[in-house]
Structure formats: C-alpha cells, structure tokens
Amino acid sequence: MSYYLLLSALLFAIGLYGVLARRTAILIFMSVELMLNSANLALAAFARGSGNLNGQAMALIVIALAAAEVAVGLGIVVAVFRSRQSTAVDDLAEFRG
Amino acid sequence: MTTLIILFVVALLTTFVGFFAPAATTKKLTLLGMLAALVGLAFTWGDNVSAFSGLYRYDVFSQGVTLAMIVGALLALLADCDFFERKGWPAFEYYALISFAVFGGHVMASTTHLGAMIVGLEILSIPLYALAASSREERGYEASLKYFLLGAVSAAFFLYGIALYFGSTGSFTLGAEGKGLIFNAAVLMMLAGLAFKSALAPFHWWTPDVYQGSPTPVTLFMATAVKAAAFAALARLVVSVGLGGPWFYALAAIVLLTVFWGNLAALVQGEAKRVLAYSSVAHAGYIAVALFGPNPAPSMGFYLLAYALSTGLAFAVLAELDDGKGVPISELAGLWARSPLLGLGWLTALLSLAGLPPLVGFWGKYLVFVEAAKGHQYLIVALALFAAVIAAYYYLKLLAVALFGKAEKVKPLKLAGSAPVGLALGIFLVVLLGVLPGLTYKLLTLASAVVK
Lengths: 97, 452
Prior knowledge:
Largest interface: A-B, 45 and 43 residues
Helix content of chain B: over 70%
Radius of gyration of chain A: 16 Å
Shape of chain B: globular
Strand content of chain A: under 5%
Number of helices of chain A: 3
Helix content of chain A: over 70%
Radius of gyration of chain B: 20 Å
Strand order of the largest sheet of chain B: 1-2
Number of helices of chain B: 19
Largest sheet of chain A: none
Distance between the termini of chain B: 19 Å
Shape of chain A: elongated
Number of domains of chain B: 1
CATH architecture of chain A: Orthogonal Bundle
Structural class of chain A: mainly alpha
Oligomer: heterodimer
C-alpha cells in the first residue's frame, strides 16, 4: 500500500508544481486534475488496504465532482479565450494591489 | 429536513421556470422561496436532527449559519445594479445559480461527514464560478478564471486532506480518533483548503481581484453567504480535532496574519470594492478569533449574521453606484447629497463594520472577543483589537468622503426596482439587532456546542 501512497503523494506534488509553474489556464487546470486524481488514488489505496469500501465510493463521487468542475471551468476558459485570444494567466492582470 | 427540502425545491423550480418565464418572475419566485426557507428555518429552530445515516446534521449552529446565508442571498437578490440591468443582466440563471449556491452552503454547514461536506462545497462553488463571469465582460472573466483556478486548487487540497483523514482514521466522519503524521497532515491540508474558501491569510490573494471584478451583487453574495458556509465547515473541523498541539499555533498565526494583513492592505486601496474585499479578509480573521473559545458556535453564528448584514448593506450601496468599472473612492463623494437613502445605508454599514455601538457589528466583535477571552487567549484578543482600531481609520475615511466630499456629479441618483426595499431592510436590521442583540443571540445559544 505504501508504494501507492508514495505515488499519489508524488502525483500531488507534480500537480502542485504544475499549478505554480505553468502559465496557461489549460495547463494549470490539467495540473489541478492531477491533484484531484492523486487524491482518488490515495482513497482507493486506503480502501484496499483497510478493506473499507467507503473510500472507493468516495473516489467515485470525486470523479463526478471533477467532471462538474471541468464543465464549468472549460466554459470559463473558452469565454476568456474568445475575449482575449489567449489563455495565458499573465495577461490577466487588470487588477493590482 | 424542512429547510433542506425547501432550498432544494427552490433551486429546481427557479432553474426550470426560468426557461419559459421572464427573469422578473424568476426573481419573485426566488425571493418567495428564500422567504419560505426562512419560515421553514423558524419552525424548525432548535431542532437537532440527524438524517441519512449521519450525513446530514441539522443543529442550531447550522441553522444560524443558514440564516446568515439566506440574509446574504436576499440582499443579493434585492440589490439591483442599474448599469447591468440596462444590459439585460441578471438573466434568470443568476437567480437559479444563487439558489443552488445557498442550497450547497446549507449542505456544507449541516454535515459532519467529509464526503457530504465536499459535495456541498462544490455545489456552492461551481455556481459562483459561473456567476462571477455572468456579466460577460473582460473584468468578470478575469475574476471568474482566477476564482475558478484557485478554488479548484483549494478543493484539491481539501480532498487530499480527506483522503489522508480516511487513511489514518478509517472514517469520513469528523471527530474520529486519530493521531500521527498522516492525521496531522490531513487536518492541515483540510484547514488550508477551507482557509482558501473563507479568505484567511495567507490564502486570501484571490479575494480582492475576484471581489473587484465580479458584478457587485455577486460580490455581495460571495462576501456574505460563501464566507458563512466556509466558516461553518472550518468551525466543525477545528472543534472536532481540538486546539491542542500544532493546530493551535497554525491557527493563531493564520488569525493574526489575517487581521493585520487585511486591515493594512485595505488602508492603501483606491477602489471601494477592493477596500471592502480586504476588510472582508480582516473580518474573516475576527470570526476565526472565536475558535479559541471553549464554545465558539453562538458567537461565531452571531458574527456571521452581523457581518452578512453589514457588508451586505455596504455592497448593496456600491451596487447602485457601479457603472461596470467598479467604484473608485472619489465616486463616493457627495453620496449623502445625491441620495439620502444610499448615504444612510453607507453610514450604518460602515459604522457597523468598524464595530461602533449601538450597531450590530459591535456586538459581533464583542461576542467573539469575549469568547476568546474565555479561552484565556488574551494576547490574540489584544492584537485583534489593535487591528480593529487600524480598521476604523479606513472605514471613517470612506465615510468622510461620502458625507463631506465635494461631489463632481451632482445629479441625484434614482434608485430603481427592488433596491430601496433591500437597503431599507438592511438598515433596519443592522440598527435593530444593534439595539437588541439578544433577539438572535438567544436563538444561537440554544446550541451548547458545535456538535462533533
């Protein structure tokens, strides 16, 4: 089980790095998805390790939540792209201070 | 249960009615639905129900938080934005999304099960990502994208915390016994995720941009209802793990950083919505001060309601002035002369936010500070009080501009639609609960503690 947990922690760290280092909305968003799925992996691993299936059920719920988030999130990204022809987050700097 | 069912039915109804009825009808329906939810809340007040095998926990704390959320939603529904109205905003989706967000917030506040909590969190957050962009303007898009990306990251943190919590305790219910490295990491990650949502420093950087860029009624809703729901979850988490050991220092650092950062940053802003955004960060810090007391639920519930009323009123005034480009502070000049009702609303809202008696904001601050003093955290109370004194400076500055500033535009403002009703209601409640705080505080003390 601990290998799966290590893998999930690694995936989470990669996702976090992606969020901090990437400069386009889509790539940041993909990194977030990686973080969510690393949590799913951890849930499944814990459920398998302890024989408690609640963890698996939770992972399924999380997949549904992530899908809902993708729907709205990609909608927003498309809207931003239409109005600016770019999804680079550095361009989104109207507000300061 | 009644409140949950009413809120859910309202959300469904407003969604489907909107397809064939004009937006004005949907608005009336949503208002009626929120009033019905208030009635349902009143009839079930004091109940302590657990349903769906423990997934849903309806106690006085969740009732108080739901009350604050519904008040915020009512003010957001009543605040008409003249500028946006001329462009056909809000469409009916605005009302449907607000109803869904209130429903999600209620779920989030009324559960001790982490799975139900994150589902509630998402039902609350996803409509708000869309609402922030709903004016279809550059500024709204920027706010929405920032809110969405950071909100998704915070949800990921919260979720990973849940996974670790499950791994170390074998349960998704708060209050399970746990210790060790994994448990500590789980609680810290969940704290970070919820601190994002409730805008506690150092997880607050999205707040000013998002509050400034969203249409003002949406900002109003974010500042009141979202904060209330996030704090409900935060309180349940903190109370269930207790304040021994590492959390104490983590939380104390977060609280002090929040009150000082929020207030000091608010001093140097040139835009009224941005000032209120930083003030909202600072107020999150005051609310969290209550967590250091032995029984944080009643004072926290009261503060959330007081804050929803005061900041809701302030944003409702700004909604009238917003011309789609935000409200620079100079725009406030001569507000009193241009419209006495707006002036009066601004006066009561800001004095209440600054915490001057006899307005409701004073009692909120009083109660949370007394609560923390009961827990013998005098240093935190003293520092938070000091920060509140700094805050008085910028509130009074905003007020002075509105009362004594020379107006560039002398044209009187005409209030349209339901805005006067919302403003009058807000002013009335801020003053009434300021004079008679016992009215609601008694209700909230029915809860002996946040239920574990």
